[in-house]
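Q: Focus on the chain.
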Amino acid sequence: MIDLLQSALASPLIHSVPTDPGTMWTKDVDIAIDTPPDEALTDPPEALWPANAVWTGKSGAVAPRVVVLPGGGYRMFYTQILPRPGYSDGANDYNNATSRIQSAFSSDGRKWTREPGVRLSPLAGGAGEFRVVSGDIVPVTGAEGKLRMYYECCNGPQSSSNAIKTAVSDDEGLTWVVEPGDRLSRSNRNYVSPRIVFVDEMRCRLYCGERGRGIISALSGDGGLTFNEEPGIRIRPDGPYDAMTVFAPEIMRADNGYIMYHAGYSAQNRACILRATSDDGLVWRKHGDPIVAPGAAPWDAAKCSEMCLYRLPHQDGQVTRYRMVYEACDGTAPDERGVWRIAGASSE
């Protein structure tokens, strides 16, 4: 959770919640962000499409990340998957797809309007024709009004090595300048869904999924430019709902420790949103049953995956309410892949 109303500076406050968001969530009756239909793959990000258009999963909207802006309102960063030149299957063949980072704005945290332009293209982000995937957006340490994006840079299939890179923005995330170097990369390792949690005003911890291992962490003492991987695995893929893989940690600080929501695949065709808690951010206890599972809506019939959480506007005397947006797959393509869209749910 990134709440710049709590603090516009790099601080643990931006991840802090006054109450536990809990385990009971009600899904929206509409999707939050749609993806272009087959006949409109080259349309601009803000285009509108007819309800009778045809979607077969060639495009996809995934990996949402919401920032509560310091002046009010919400900006969602998300990843649009599209066919790469010479590979017409697009998101249905993710290894050979391309993707770019886009954004949407909401004044109330519920209704979203896709914004014009591309926030980060794969070419600008260092991935050539392949994929940049939205990760986390946090304040730059020691620079008020400046944001840093941590993103996944993939210049090949998922089996190849990749890197976590960064870009900076001084206009609340509309334009980005890529920083030199990698924040996290190692030969023959593949990192996904980076998230940053500030330990204090200078130190921060990067959590991410590593393919084949689970959710790991690395610590930075210089405000998030260099990281040293910490020993051990934070969340292992060893439960009934995450036996295949676990990734995409969304972490909050509460009075009694840390709360994590994360994605888990039990099989290639089934994904859920799960929960864990920790006293210190290093040793985590799994909750057990899924928090959000497939099946209640047609757009998430197969998978409910990578998510983020944010607080809704709060008034004195009212209970704090939370929202989440998550990537949802309808399972309508072969092997239950299908169309990826961004859906939403509210805490009860």
